[in-house]
Amino acid sequence: MTHSPGTIRQMWQLLEPVHATLYYAPEAFDQAATLGYATDERWPGYFAYRAAPLGPVGPRLVTALFYSFSPRMVERYTAKAWDTATTEQVLEARAAVVDRALRTLLGDRIDSADLREAAELARRAAESANTAGRPLAAANAALPWPEDPHTVLWQAATILREHRGDGHIVALQAHGIDPTEALVSHAAAGAAPEEVFSSRQWTGEEWSAARERLVSRGLLQADGGVTEEGLRIRTSIEKLTDELAAAPWQVLTDDEVTRLAELLVPPVLDIVGAGLLPMQSTLGIGMKYDYA
Length: 292
Hints:
By secondary structure, this protein is an all-alpha fold. It has one domain (5-273). It contains 15 helices and no strands. The two termini are 20 Å apart. The mean pLDDT is 94.
């Protein structure tokens, strides 16, 4: 079964809010505080929760796999992360976060047949993912599956989004776009205002240098606006990302993918409607690209 890049992109956009609950729900901050992490901002918990499946790795590997974060930022939040709590403790904590947060967000939907069906379809796709060359996907796929449908859905969403993210790095490198340039070009293409991308903590000098490199390649205008060639390259990156993310979905028929999309809309609206997630992010969710 072959699904279009646009369909693959739609499934990512529907599943991303499910995954992102881990980083924004009040339960995430509560559990992080219990473990001993600072909670005046979300980053100590974010880096611990997201990196924990890799084991007690250091900043160099996390920098490589998270790609667009400033190495100094990664160093700040991961150098002593496993001195605060073990990866096993963090994994237990994030499982508790997901369980409690989704129970709160989804309410009566938590025990519905529709949610169980969505979890089963998403799990089939996630279990079919080939994780060769996909370290973050592989680390999450190696974890045991939970039992409840809402946590199964979260686990599947996480494997699939990390599988996609690992492929996105491949797409960026195939087009010669380094970590800072990835953010600068995405902002220029309209994914979000530049200030949203400042969360990755590159300096103004590093941002300007990346912009100058992109200008020299004809991808940006001198004022920072995207050129026709820059938009072509950015579109090519996104298309390749979607194509590289397609394989796990081939296990589902067109009707099953359509059905899963329908099933995901109500719980995703519950999550988005709670107001936990930012209106804009560096991911560019909602952007449309012309793949014709």
